[in-house]
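Researcher: Before we compare anything, I want clean individual predictions. No alignment, no superposition, just each chain on its own. First chain goes here; please echo the sequence and then give the structure tokens.
Model: Echoing the first chain and its structure:
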Amino acid sequence: MTPRELVLESLAKRAPPVFPFQLDLTDEVQARLALHFKDDGFFDTLGNSLAQERNELLQQISPIEVRDMFGVTWSREQKGDFGVVLSPILKEPEFGSYRFPEPDEAAIRAKCERLVAKREQQFTMYIIGFSLFERAWSLRGMEDLLVDFILNPDFTDELLTHITEYNLKVVELVSQYPIDCIFYGDDWGQQQGLIMGPAHWRRFIKPHLARMYAQVRRKGMAVAQHSCGDVSEVFPDLVELGMDIYNTFQPEVYDVAEMKRLYGSRVTFYGGVSTQRLLPYTTPDEVRAETKRLMKVLGKGGGYIVAPTHAIPDDVPTANILAFLDAVRNQGEK
């Protein structure tokens, strides 16, 4: 079976002969492994099951600063991180002269064409990062947005509606190509619970998410949702809305076996191999053993894409990355 077929089997909750896997890398780690393998193109030979393109467009405006397509300027002084907002654009709970962007149609079409070229072998994902809450706080500021949830609910609804409308336009363009999945990235969780709490999540985030998911499903694509942290308080809501794939699935915040028991018949889990503790701080043998254990626990009846919880950061030893690859490439009996 091709890697794409393995993912489709997992989504259908049929146990594939081997589990699909994905290994994503930060730029620093990719450069390090290119030296290790003596091959700048090594990433294309890893055997990853997913082909991914990101919607984000960034304009370099200084050696350490970029501007995103919504006009927000980010400092990227620290390597391996998306960056820090230098100054929110919406300094008051009003829009003033600010105008929301239109999707860059030419760029989106070029990315979709690259995905289509890989679809015979890989499951194709179009990633819309900073898809709702994160986009809102990048425009408004985290603290001010959370205050707006309480003091300025009408403004908050309008802000989230504008962001949702942008996303729907992107999905409409992507749906003109045979892409398998829309992947929404939006961090709501902390190590313990939701940043805004379940009541505010249901009041402000869920209605817009419902529109976003419904459009993807109408277009015949799968819905993948990324959120770091513990979102278990609203996991039933995500299932209700039609989430097909959940990422990152951090073992530090979830009882992975219990989550599999509760939701494994309806959701495919993508992640689970810890970049917080396992990969940086243990031995290669421990990485192999834990990766195999996760495949056994989470892979029962399909519904699992084996992967680190995040793109591999620079504190992970090369030997541990190779141990993960060894475990997923040589799965043997599950």
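Researcher: Okay. Second chain, same rules.
Model: Second chain and its structure:
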Amino acid sequence: MQIVVGLGNPGDRHRDSRHNLGFRCVDFMSRRWEIPFSERRAKAVLAIGRRHGRDVVLVKPRTFMNNSGEGISYLIDRFGVKPSDILIIYDDLELALGRIRLRTQGTGGTHNGMRSIISVLQTQEIPRLRVGIGHPPLGQETIPFVLGRFSEDESGSVSRSVSLAAEAVECILDENIDTAMNRFNSIQPEC
């Protein structure tokens, strides 16, 4: 079983924010793989199905970004999986817009959602897929930037990175994360 979690904040107010890029990625996978989000729980909304003979669970935590660890802990208890069976997808301002990067482990960096997960699970050995949103423009604070929406000029890059993230997850499901890292970590964003 592979659990794929897109991080974000629940609610219409946050729907199209940069910080909800993880939600956008799993929403795209749900449509592409025809696995609808049909199960609502207190800690998460789930889409449960199969892809290429493998059980897949797509997840959007309902715990807000800074408490993402609670939602991931729920998944481990519910499905009896290890942290290494869960792939976390989240926005990263340290990566250029349109760039993705897979890792099998590491710190949470500046991302409070990933920090929460590492703190609750007490391990850094959690696979993750970081999707670049770029740095805020000179003079703009970080929080308003990540909670803000993408500009119309950025929409093409965002769509490409969401599609690329889905392809990377498909590679993980069909092959393994090492193959996916070799294939996708070197892809540069289109300008």
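Researcher: What stands out in the second chain?
Model: The mean pLDDT is 93. Additionally, The CA atoms of residues 1 and 55 lie 5 Å apart.
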